[in-house]
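INFO batch 0412 | record 1 of 1 | parsing
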Amino acid sequence: MSTNIDQGFFATDVSYKDSAAIVTGASRGIGRAIAIELARQGADVLINYNQNRAAAEAVKQEIEDIGRNAAIIQADISNLESHQKLLDTAHETFGKVNILINNAGITRIADILDETPEQFDLLLNTNLKAPHFLTQRVANYMIENKIPGCIIYTLSISDTMASDNRTAYCISKAGLEMSMRSYAGRLAMHGIKVNGIAAGVINTDLSRVRIPDYEEAAEKGYIFMVRPGTPEDVAHATVAAMRLYDTGVVIPASGGVMTPLLNLRSMSALDMNR
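INFO prediction complete | emitting tokens
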């Protein structure tokens, strides 16, 4: 890449001046935190939501209080026909789109022996197919308009840690990581950076119920976890992934959960030195 052209998010000093982002699933949780953090960094934000209009309005107000522009759009991203509306709204409102945050996702609990094709399709369509093809649409827009942009995927430690009662979710996140890596390789020549965030145990509506299990495992020494994460932790990791001098990589935001460890607390009572 020539040093005489706009290096965008591959520049040494990444600037958010005149940036505009689409953040899917931005009305609550991780998406909300990312949208607000991007505004703090200087970007305008299109807030996508599916059901909770009031929550989306609150995010919009918070972004405008920061001094940035924001817009709201209702869209179920699993409906691929809605993707053009997302892109058109952001472009018409802000003049361009140079950031896409693939954050929206759902989970369902189902024993792998009882899981239905309908449950599987719901997870795969929302968590994998939708962001894969939204990325395709936005990437082609960036290429056509010669925009050196950045695309970030909200991934999960569940793309490597299997759960037999959330298998479709794990499969969707594993596939999403490969989507991220594949786009990174294809888009680097166009100056478009693509990275992912491996979110761990985050205190959100989606995963809050799992926190006690992880805390118990940490107390017993099976895993290490500094504390349950917050949506803001993932938002900060997202900004780091956008500034990172790399593409096609996953930035962890898991509080140490993925650090290899087997330190059984029950062994501490034994005196092995006799």
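INFO post-check: The longest strand covers residues 150-156.
INFO record closed
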